[in-house]
Amino acid sequence: MKMQIEILIKLAGLGLLVSVITAVLKQSGREELSALVVVAGLVMGTVMMLGLVSDLMDTIRRVFSLY
Q: In whole angstroms, what is the distance from residue 18 CA to residue 26 CA?
């Protein structure tokens, strides 16, 4: 349970950081770079979630005896 709350806090922090950087870049006229930051943030968030998705798939296999 603690790990799940920790990953939620990390994802929220990543989202906040990406939104602040994007706002600053858009105000300085660098829209292309801000789009790149958004894509990088999405990739980082997805990589952070891969472990949980893997655990979920293992749990589903065990529950339905798919091994």
A: 12
Q: Give Cβ neighbours of residue 33 (< 8 Å, ≥ 6 apart).
A: 25
Task: Determine contact, residues 31/25, Cβ cutoff 8 Å.
Answer: yes
11 touches 48 (CB < 8 A): yes
Q: What is the pLDDT along the chain (67 residues), one digit of tens a residue?
A: 667 788 889 999 999 999 999 999 999 999 999 999 999 999 999 999 998 888 889 889 889 887 6
List, in order, residues 6 or more apart from 44 with CB less than 8 Å away.
14
Which one-letter amino acid corresponds to residue 44?
M
Look-up: residue for tokens 């709350």? Answer: 5
Instruction: With beta carbons less than 8 A apart as the criterion, state whether 45 and 13 touch.
Output: no
